[in-house]
Amino acid sequence: MSEQQEILNKTYQFAEKYHSTDNSGHDFEHIKRVYANMNTLLKNEPEANPFICRMSALLHDVDDHKMHTDGKVAERFLQSTGLDKTRISAILETIDAISFSKSGENPHFDTLEMQLLSDADKLDAMGAIGICRALNYGFSYHQPLFKEDELPCQENNEKHIINHFFAKLLLLKGAMQTAVGKKEAEKRHKFMIEFLQQFFAEQNLVIWQDFLERFLDRMAR
Ligand code: ADP
Ligand code: NI
Question: Taking the model in full, what pTM does it have?
Answer without folding.
Answer: 0.94
